Structure formats: structure tokens, C-alpha cells
């Protein structure tokens, strides 16, 4: 598709997109090339943790770009060393490998677990993952995912992944055998509709994996960097995994991800893992700016409080319109619509200047900036309430 202004057909057609072309962003708002303003409760799928084009990140990028773009990952650079140290000091992990995307970080976690199995578990290589999970779009991360739409794609998949049910510890225990090396999961499954693992289940999983000498891998691509009111979701549970992956929010809008591991699990040898842009100083400078803001106790407290406000407002909407429950934690929430109307609501909200997300046909997902204001929440709720009111009236007439 091409028009006089934009050659849309030059991009591969991999997803349905509205024709609006965004040209500017600030905080919780975006503007398209017709100067229409949109309130953004998607934020790049939880990527823009500080909103669009925050000064702290913009300034860090500009300053680093004037100093050094990249010396290549064959050499150390200052921002990557500083960010790695800051992440280690803020977490339960000892070492960091930087990547460019969440999928790449998860691919690294899979490789690290298999390396561990080859060294310490007599060649064990199987990883137990979960139905409904989503870990990325490389062949290995698609194979680890429990997304039904992935099952017929790009066969044959990478072998060695067994799927179990979330919050069912017996189903995990039943699949452990001599070939098992790790269990991998999202603490909150985002793409399947924001389905949380309970804290009790995660604690039981830690006990089970420790008893069998298995690695526990948390994919915190979406839940990490303050999204649930703690810097990392595992902090809610009183336990820590052996490996954790970060992405999305860690770069605040630029391509940055990280694989973190304990000293015990950090078993890569020279040549096992790498990448041309891994630990790029510009991206790591952005990561430092993000961590400096998001890691502050007052900021995290504000995220938790704002999350409770958004949850309360969504519950009120649900009660008014006879909808289902609200799921999630902090500022990663979902509203169960109980009907397959989510895509239609997303389309109507877009026309009204509000960006929402429908991970499933009966579910809306909310991923605003972590510093979203009460006013912005009220604006979104008013829009959603109006759409649901019209939809209810239409159903009653029909």
C-alpha cells in the first residue's frame, strides 16, 4: 500500500497496522503526522518505562554518541561496565551479558542452561516451560514458548522443551527426568493475557528445582525494571532464580536486553556467546539512565501506588459493565471482557486517540509508562467507559 506521503509497501507486511504515522512522543502521549494526539497505554509493549522521549534518556544518548559509538565487543567500554555493576548490585546475580532484544537474551539463557547441563548434569538439555508462555521469536525461543499460534510455524522446531501448566507444581514435577536441566517461565504471562504465577507457586518451584539440582530461569522481559512495583518481580516472592532475563523497559525505548546469572550458573567459556552490538555503549548509557530513575525506592513506591489506582479504576469499569476480573500486578494489568470484543474496543479507542492492546480477543492489556499520571489514567478510563457504554447499548438494541 502506498499513498502520496508514505510508501507503506516498502516495509514487509508482517502485521496489521493503522495508517497513522507517528512522528513525535512526550511522556504518555504520541502525535501522528496529522498532529492528532494519542494517549498511550501500550508504550511499545511496556518498553517506554519513563514514557516517550524522556529527557534523561535523550540526554544520555546524545552525550554518549558524541564520545563513543562502539569499540566492538572485543573490548571493554565504560557504560557497559557501569551498567553491569549496577545491575549486579541491585539484584541477586553475579554476572551480566548484554543483548539487543528480549528474544536474544532468552536465547542466551537457553544456551547457558544447556552449557550448564553439559558441564554439570551429564549432558542434560531439556527445559520445562509453560503453556501460554511467550519467550520471543527466534526458533529456540518460539520452541520454548507455549503460544498455540506458533505450533505450526517454521517446522521443525528446536527440540528439548516440555510444556506444563502454570501454577500446577505437580505437572512440573511429573516431567522432571535425567535429561532435565532447567525450568523457564515468565512470572506473569503477558502475551496470553496477563496471567500471573502465584507467589506460592514460584516459591514451590524454587524448592523443587533446588531439590533436583535444576536451574530456575525467570523471563522478566516484561515484568522487570519496576513494572510490578519492585525493580524485579522475583523480589515479591522472597526467592531468587539462577538466571533472569531483562528487555523492554531496561532500555527505556532503545534496543537493550540483559541476561543475568549467579556465579554458579555462569558457565560460558570464551567463544560460546557473543554478538556484534552486545554491550553497545550508547544503549548501555540509556540503560544507566533508566536504572538511575527506576531504581529509586520512591519511584518504585509510586509505581505500586499508581498500579493499585489503575486496578481500582478498572474494577469499577468492570462492575459498571458486568465484565470479568482484573489480573496482574503493578502497571502490568489486564481486564477480562468475557466477550470477544477486545479488538473492536482497541480500534474504537484508537479513533478516539487512546492506544490500548488486546493480547487475546476477550482481554485488554494495560502497560502505561511507569510515571503515568492520575490525569492520564482518568482520561483513559473515561474513553474506555464511553466505548463500553455504547457497546452495551448496541447489544441491548440487537
Task: Please tell me about this protein's structure.
- The protein is of the alpha/beta class.
- It has two domains: 22-51 and 297-397, Alpha-Beta Complex (Aspartate Aminotransferase, domain 1); 55-295, Type I PLP-dependent aspartate aminotransferase-like (Major domain) (Aspartate Aminotransferase, domain 2), CATH 3.40.640.
- The chain is built from eleven helices and 17 strands.
- The strands form four sheets. Strands 4-12-11-10-7-5-6 form a seven-stranded mixed β-sheet, sandwiched between helices. Strands 1-2-3-15 form a four-stranded mixed β-sheet.
- A hairpin with a 4-residue loop joins strand 2 and strand 3.
- The longest helix has 25 residues, at 297-321.
- The protein is globular and about 60 Å long.
- The chain starts with 21 loop residues before the first strand and ends with a helix.
- N(2)-acetyl-L-ornithine binds at residue 137.
Descriptors:
398 residues; alpha/beta; Aspartate Aminotransferase, domain 1; Aspartate Aminotransferase, domain 2; 2 domains; seven-stranded mixed beta sheet; four-stranded mixed beta sheet; 11 helices; 17 strands; globular
Amino acid at each position: 500500500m502506498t499513498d502520496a506521503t508514505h510508501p507503506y509497501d516498502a516495509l514487509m507486511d508482517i502485521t496489521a497496522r493503522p495508517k497513522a504515522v507517528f512522528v513525535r512522543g512526550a511522556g504518555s502521549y504520541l502525535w501522528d503526522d496529522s498532529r492528532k494526539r494519542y494517549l498511550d497505554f501500550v508504550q511499545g509493549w511496556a518498553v517506554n518505562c519513563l514514557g516517550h522521549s524522556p529527557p534523561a534518556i535523550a540526554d544520555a544518548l546524545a552525550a554518549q554518541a558524541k564520545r563513543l559509538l562502539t569499540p566492538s565487543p572485543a573490548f571493554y567500554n565504560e557504560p557497559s561496565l557501569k551498567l553491569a555493576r549496577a545491575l549486579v548490585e541491585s539484584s541477586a546475580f553475579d554476572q551480566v551479558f548484554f543483548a539487543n532484544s528480549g528474544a536474544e537474551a532468552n536465547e542466551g539463557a537457553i544456551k547457558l542452561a544447556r552449557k550448564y547441563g553439559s558441564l554439570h548434569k551429564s549432558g542434560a538439555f531439556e527445559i520445562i516451560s509453560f503453556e501460554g508462555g511467550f519467550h520471543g521469536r527466534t526458533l529456540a525461543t518460539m520452541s520454548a514458548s507455549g503460544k498455540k499460534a506458533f505450533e505450526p510455524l517454521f517446522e521443525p522446531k528446536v527440540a528439548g522443551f516440555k510444556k506444563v501448566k502454570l501454577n500446577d507444581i505437580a505437572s512440573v514435577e511429573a516431567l522432571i527426568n535425567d535429561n532435565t536441566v532447567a525450568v523457564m517461565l515468565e512470572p506473569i504471562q503477558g502475551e496470553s493475557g496477563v496471567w500471573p504465577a502465584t507467589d506460592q507457586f514460584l516459591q514451590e518451584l524454587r524448592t523443587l528445582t533446588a531439590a533436583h539440582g535444576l536451574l530456575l530461569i525467570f523471563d522478566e522481559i516484561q515484568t522487570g525494571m519496576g513494572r510490578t512495583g519492585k525493580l524485579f518481580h522475583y523480589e515479591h516472592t522472597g526467592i531468587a532464580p539462577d538466571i533472569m532475563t531483562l528487555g523492554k523497559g531496561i532500555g527505556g525505548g532503545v534496543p537493550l536486553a540483559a541476561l543475568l546469572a549467579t556465579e554458579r550458573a555462569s558457565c560460558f567459556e570464551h567463544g560460546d556467546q557473543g554478538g556484534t552490538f552486545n554491550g553497545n555503549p550508547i544503549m548501555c548509557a540509556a540503560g544507566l539512565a533508566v536504572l538511575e530513575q527506576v531504581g529509586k525506592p520512591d519511584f518504585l513506591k509510586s509505581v505500586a501506588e499508581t498500579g493499585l489506582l489503575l486496578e481500582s479504576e478498572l474494577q469499577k469499569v468492570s462492575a459498571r459493565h458486568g465484565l470479568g476480573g482484573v489480573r496482574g500486578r503493578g502497571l502490568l494489568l489486564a481486564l477480562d471482557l468475557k466477550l470477544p470484543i477486545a479488538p473492536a474496543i482497541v480500534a474504537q479507542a484508537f479513533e478516539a486517540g487512546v492506544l490500548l492492546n488486546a493480547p487475546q480477543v476477550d482481554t485488554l492489556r494495560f502497560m502505561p509508562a511507569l510515571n503515568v499520571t492520575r490525569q492520564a489514567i482518568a482520561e483513559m478510563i473515561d474513553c474506555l467507559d464511553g466505548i463500553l457504554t455504547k457497546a452495551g447499548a448496541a447489544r441491548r438494541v440487537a
